[in-house]
Structures are given as C-alpha cells and as structure tokens.
Amino acid sequence: MNIPNIDLPRIVVIGCGFAGLKFCKKADSSKFQIVLLDKNNFHTFQPLLYQVATSGLEADSIVYPIRKIFKGKKNFYFRMTKTRKIDSGTKTVHTNLGPLEYDYLVVATGATTNFFGLKNIEKLAMPMKSIVESLNLRSLIIQNFEEALNTQDLDERERLMNFVIVGAGPTGIELAGALSELRTHILPKDYPDLDIRRMQIHIVEAADRVLAAMSQFASKKSEDYLKKRDIHVWTSTLVKDFDGDCVFTDKKNLYAKTVIWAAGVKGDSPISPNFKRTRSERILVDEYNAIKGQEKIYAIGDIAQIESKTYPKGNAMLASVAEQQGKQLAKNFNRLAVKKEM
Predict the structure, then answer these.
(1) Domain boundary among 236, 261, 286
(2) Which residues fall within 8 angstroms of residue 122, CB to CB, at 6 or more apart?
(3) 128 and 237 together in one domain
(4) pTM of the predicted model, to two decimals?
(5) 168-171 — which CB contacts under 8 Å span 24+ positions?
(6) Residue ranges making up the domain that contains 133
(7) For residue 5, is pLDDT > 80?
(8) Is 342 among the domain residues?
(9) Rg (CA), the chain
(10) Same structural domain for residues 231 and 136?
C-alpha cells in the first residue's frame, strides 16, 4: 500500500461513512498516523439517497471525493480497497491490496441491507443503501413506465406502474412521499399517453404503526400525510415472498413489478471471529466505543452497539449518532496522545 513507517502510532480506520469521516477530521494527525480505508473513493450523504432514486437530485449532489475532504491533512493516507479480514492477534488488516499493520484500529463500516433470509426478496427486490443502488432504482422506474406505455396487457401495465415499499421507517416514508410527488407533478407531463392516476404506491410495515421507533404523534402525522397523498398503508402486515409480479403477504397479495426493500439493516463488519456481535450483526462495544474483549480496537457508527439501561438495544442507527461517536472517539484519542485519561 506504500504507507510509510514513521515514529507515530498508526490508527487504521475502516470506512468513510459519517462516523469514520468525523473521526478522521477530528483526530490529531500530528500525534498519530491515520490511514483510512474504504471501498469507494467518495463519501455519500446517505439520507438523500431517496432523492437520487426518484430523480430529485443528481448523484454528484450527494457524494464528495474523500481525497478532497482531507487535502492537506498531514500524516493522513487514504487507500481505496476492500477489507477482507481482521487479525487481532497480529494487529493486521487484510485487504485486497495486501496486509496492513496497525497500532489502533477503528471499525466504521456502517450497515447493509437485512433481507431476513428471504432469498427471492434479496434476488428480485431493490435495496437502497448505496449511490449505485439508488441509480439502479431510478433507471428501473423509468424503464417500467416506458414498458407500460408499450404493452397492450392492461394487467401487466398496472404491475409496471405499481410500487410496493416494504418498511415504514424514515427511508420508506420519504421514498413513498417522493414517489407520490413524481406521480402528481412529473410523470403526467413525461407520459401524457399513460393514465398515471392508475399508479398505486403501497407501503407495508410489520409493526402496528408507521415510524414505530418514534413517538405516537410522529406516527399519526406521518400516516395522515401518506393517506392524504393517496398512498396505501398496510400495517401489521408481514411480507412472505415476491416472485417478480406479486408480493405475497399474510393479509393481501399486492401486484407490482417493483419492490423496494427498506425493512431493515444489519451491521456490515469485516470478518473477525473474535468480535462479539448482536443478532443484527452489530459489534458490542463499551462506553468508550472499545470492542468488548479486544485490545486497541474500536467500533463507531451503525456497526457499533453500546448497550445501556436507557438504550438496551443500542443507540439509533442515525447519521447524527454516528458523527457524535466519531467526534468523541477522536477527542479520546487526542487526550490519550497527551497522556490524559479518555
């Protein structure tokens, strides 16, 4: 990787999401050598992926080059690579560019889509956790309406024009609203020969209300908004399967060619058999974000779970939480560098 060996402790950071980015910006690189690894050479503002998917924004509006962010930061190195394995015994990170030794390791790899073992859903549904997936969804939406315009089969036309969003969390709600805006303002102008009024948007949620992790007030306001926009809301409904034409649930079958999966995420950590993980693949850490049972290895952001009496299942997997953890861990490292307690 051509990383020089210097007389400073080396911190290897895996992942440039909100947590990893904030940590690298705030860590004092005059006291540490910082090496950032990421599979992409850009940072993505994930909260606006739904806007890219629905043509509200262009992709370059929500991505920014990592090298430009850290231009001029001394003792900082970025390498675009995938992390294959972590060997805590030898303090080595194995990547597709080769091995890299560390003095301290910060895992900030974020989360990935959780399909809960539904193989057909994983194969046929559209996730939305990356810029590529959002662009794929945008292309599929346009392709569907082009096909709907040309088909003589009325049932097929309706399947092409219908959308089923699985998961009524913030992502699902935002996406449903954005699709509704498309239906009202954009599609009738782009496809005047289609009866866009026949386009149906369904949002399916296993819990008994939308935005189940939030307050009752937020749930009620959100559901009222969705229904006002003529979006069909199916709560207390489990998705069982999808065959490419029909979504099978425990209540009603929904006919659509496009299923957007926003029903859950899980931790996306590199392979390490020694890390203690939760059922959702998040890494268990203490109040200092140190991985339990490990020495000089930390985890921050969506991949980390700090269990407490207030939050027995850990903090919410939000950008604001990730940034706070990255900032606090950098502050702790800076204190450590001047021989102060974390």
Answers:
(1) 261
(2) 115
(3) yes
(4) 0.92
(5) 168/203, 168/204, 168/205, 168/207, 168/209, 168/210, 168/211, 168/212, 168/233, 168/235, 169/211, 169/212, 169/213, 169/262, 170/211, 171/50, 171/128, 171/262
(6) 119-261
(7) yes
(8) no
(9) 22
(10) yes
